[in-house]
Each structure stands twice: as C-alpha cells, then as structure tokens.
Amino acid sequence: MTKTTLSADASTKIAVLGLGEMGAAIAKTFVGGGFPTTVWNRTASKSAVFLDTGAKIAPTAAEAAADSDVVVLCLLDSLAVNEVLRSLDSAISGKVLVNLTSGAPAQARTYHKWAKEHGAAYLDGKIMGDPPYVGTPQVNFSFSGSAAAFAVHETALQSLGTIGYHGDEAGAAAVEFMAQVAVGYEMLIGFLHTLRLVEAEGFDVEYFAERVGASMAGYPGLLKMMARAVSTGEYRPDLGSLDVQVALMDDMISHRESMGVEAMRMREVKSLMDQRIAQGLGDQGFSSLFELLIPKTR
Questions:
Q1: Is 211 a member of any domain?
Q2: Is 271 within a domain?
Q3: Are residues 37 and 128 in the same domain?
Q4: Which among 201, 78, 98, 90 is positioned nearest to 145, based on CA atoms?
Q5: Per-residue pLDDT tens for 86-132?
Q6: What is the DSSP string of 212-260?
Q7: CATH of the domain at 246
Q8: Is 81 helix (H, G, I), strand (E, B) or coil?
Q9: What pLDDT, in 10s, does the model give residues 65-77?
Q10: Residue 276 backbone zone (phi > 0: left; psi -120 to 50: alpha; other: beta)
C-alpha cells in the first residue's frame, strides 16, 4: 500500500470525475482558481466544453486520477460512485479522494474504508446549493474524514464556497447534510399544507407568507433551547405546558378537516401530547415529545 503524501499549493493538481451540472461547475471553479485541473465524464461529449479552458481532458477516470493529487467525485448516486471506484483501483493510491456525491452516512464510511484499503486519504463532502452559485458564499460544502487532508487542501476547497469541517468520522458530513435537508422538507411540506388552509379560507397566501417569514426571526433561539432540553432531559414549558397546548389541538384538527386540508401532522402532535400527559408530564413543554420518538436510553 502506498502512503498518501499530503502537500498543497497553487500547483496542486485536481481531477474532477463527473461533469453533470454540479460537477462541471466545480471543475470550472477550480480552473478559474488557477488549479491544474483534469476532467473526465463517462459521456465524453460533456468534457468538450472544457477544451478551451486550460483543463486537461482524460479518456478514463483512472488516467485522470493518476495525473492528480486530489480526486473529486461528483456523480449522480452511489451506483455511479461504485462503478468509478472500481475503475480507479490502484490509480487512487497516494491521492486524496474527495467524494461530493449525495449519499447516506453509511456510504461515506464504506468509501472511507475503500480509500484506506487502496492507499488514499478520504474526505466526504456534501453540497447545499445550486450549480450557478458554486464559487460563491451562497453554496455550503460540509466535509468530514481525514483531518490532515482537509487541513492541507482547505484553501482549494474554500474556492468552492462556504465550507465546514465536521470531524474525522467519515459519515459526519452526511449526517449534517441529511439532517439539514430533512428539516427543510419537513418544514416546507407543513408550510404548503398551511398555505392550502389559508387559501381555502380565501386569504392572500403571499401576504401570509410575509408575516410567517417575519416570525421566523424568533426560531433560532427556540431551536437552541429545545436542543438543549433534549440534550439534558430537562423539559421546561418552552411553548407553554402540554396541558395548555393540547387544548388547542382539537380546534386545529377540526379546522383543517372542515376545509379539506391534511391534518395528519396535527393528529400526530395531539397523540404525542396525550401520551405525555397520560404519563403525568403535562407540565413539561413541546420539546419533551422527543422522548416518545426514540427508545429511551438515558
């Protein structure tokens, strides 16, 4: 096994494997930042746009990797990653493998193990943002894995956008990514159901959205307080006691159902509140519902 040699400066050679919209944006950013860049894509025609950019175009993923210090994967999914890794084999030895493909924490840990077995350092990265904004602070890149590799190549990675390092546990960036995206989807589907309710009542959804946006200013403090309560197990009445909150739930549910709007989430909340109150814990706050969502370990 070849030992990975970590050194970086403006001459650090970077290979970008995968030239979809995001991969192409990443490659262009590295080229624009003055890094010697080699590109490869399974569909060769996607490489053609790099002919006049100063980037090298490799005929195979393995040749791109062999000619580089840092090998960046930005592919559609784990199936594509697996296929490319099989083609790299020994070409990755002594390199830093940076996987920017979306995926679960378990996949990141598997790729970390694969990289180690093939003599490479591994960084798992996850992207929150759109391709046109790569290279600006508007795109967030989360990384985890080799601390030494991150430290050495931090400057190159910073050229991509706003970056964060979440530790040497390979799956940490994927945990962060999955959790951040999940919060967004959970909140936004609830928001869409609520817009349906506002619209059904004949009110202006855009004006309502402005008011909701303004009220969001109070949420960061509430979220921190709730996370602290979950961490310590000390559940103060954050939104008021459950005994008081539950009194509103029947009205919330009947209002939605009378307008033909989904009430599943409100029914879940009421069920959890009822369970907690039945346990004699009605004096606690909303954050205490957490205890019903997972097996108690404390």
A1: no
A2: yes
A3: yes
A4: 98
A5: 999 899 999 999 999 999 999 999 999 999 999 999 999 999 999 99
A6: HHHHGGGHHHHHHHHHHHHHHT----BTB-HHHHHHHHHHHHHHHHHTT
A7: 1.10.1040.10
A8: helix
A9: 999 999 999 999 9
A10: alpha
- Find tokens 């192409």 and name the residue: 24
> Among 139, 163, 177, which Cα is nearest to 25's?
139
Integer Cα distance of 290 and 275 in angstroms = 12
Q: Is residue 191 part of a domain?
A: no
- From CA 252, how far away is CA 263, in angstroms rounded? 8
My answer on whether 121 and 234 are in the same domain is no
**Residue indicated by tokens 């928001």:** 191
Which pair of structure tokens corresponds to residue 224? 């921190």
150 in Cβ contact with 127 (< 8 Å): no
Domain that holds residue 256: 220-292
Tokens linked to 192: 């869409």
Is residue 196 a part of any domain in this protein?
no
Q: What is the pTM of this model?
A: 0.87
Q: Which of 117, 83, 85 is nearest to 98 (CA)?
A: 85
- Asked whether 142 and 176 are in contact (CB, 8 A), the reply is yes
Number of domains composing the chain: 2
Q: What angle, 0 to 180 degrees and rounded to 10, lies between the N-to-C axes of helices 105-117 and 78-88? A: 0
* DSSP-derived 3-state class of residue 22: helix
Q: Report CA-CA distances (Å) from 72 to 38, 98, 213.
A: 10, 5, 37
